[in-house]
Amino acid sequence: MLVLGIDYAVSLIGWIIAGLIGGWLAGQVSKGSGFGLIGDLVMGVVGALLLGFILNALKLFPENVGLIGTIIAAFFGALLLTFIVHALTGKRV
After folding, report:
1. Is residue 1 in some structural domain?
2. Is 46 contained in some domain?
């Protein structure tokens, strides 16, 4: 049985919080082509978790980057995911 430690839970909560902030920021940057407040927040969390997983798997994200670095990564994850969704649906960015 896989038992996840408290460090994992704290890290996951941190990425979710950073994703909410990053999604909101991405929505502000992509005014007019965002998904509304709730949609932007969801895109931020999903984008942050996906990009965080990818960066951690590739060992490209240092562990001591802190909340600001995590928010920046979440912001770029949300922007990337927003761009991909717009590209797949044909909506202009």
Report:
1. no
2. yes
